[in-house]
Amino acid sequence: MADFSIHAARASRFLTAMPILIRSAGLHLLNWLIPPTCPVCHAETSMTGPDGLSGLLCASCFATLNFIVPPVCQCCGRPMDAAEGIAPDGVCEVCRIKPPRFRHARAALLYDDGSRRIILPFKHADRMAHASLLARWMADSGGDLLRQADWLVPVPLHPSRLRQRRYNQSALLCRALSRLTGVPVMLDGLQRIRRTPSLGTLTARQRQQMMRGAIQTRAARRQKLRAARIVVVDDVMTSGATISACVRALYAAGAASVDVLTAARVELPDEIPLSGQVKTPM
Ligand SMILES: [Zn+2]
Ligand SMILES: [Zn+2]
């Protein structure tokens, strides 16, 4: 299906340059000619985004999303389970068992059936306009990290995968976040120097071994990365192996702090024993 939101964004930029009355009439005409639709299910919707043309998520799609809301772990941003109890330092049991490499991580959504309907088409089916939708929620959930950030750095794709996919979804999220917050983007701060297979079927230890040395900072960027406060941006955090490789490389380059902001995250990394239980891999 055509991605009308891209055409809507172009039309909106054209209309922005017009006097306000003409712009308002133009918006009504365009909304009548091309009714705004929900970017997920494509049902017509009366709600439009800030550009006045792109449709917002319809109520039924919105209801399927699980936003991550406080209380969350102060370190990894995982929603805190009331049964688990909240430690005085606000850090969850997972982070105490295995402290992450990053300073703080935050995500807007739980990675589940609802958010997959936005993220998988964004990642694999050219639904690039979903970047602005996700970035608005990420800017809310990661506000504290973004206010302190010097640079947004996307998780890189290997050049061969970038040629296949034609775009890096993490870079699109960075650009959309930068438009909202003014934090500059360093698109080529990190590079993948070795192609890795899909990590989905591997254990946590195998994933870490697979990612070891696969991501490095770009030599020409190291001077800017030194002593800088970095926010690494990705679409989903699952095992955290890829993100850990990014964080390790950035600290090795002398970054002052490295935080992580993703559109979604799994509730609990697999293979982490929590209060005597082991969660099954997701
Ligand atoms: Zn919908
Ligand atoms: Zn935690």
TrEMBL record:
CDD domains, alphabetized: PRTases_typeI
Domain spans labelled Double zinc ribbon = 29-95
Ranges of residues in domain Phosphoribosyltransferase = 202-263
| Family membership | Belongs to the ComF/GntX family.
* SUPFAM superfamilies recorded: PRTase-like
Give the organism, scientific name.
Granulibacter bethesdensis (strain ATCC BAA-1260 / CGDNIH1)
Q: What is this protein called?
A: Amidophosphoribosyltransferase family protein
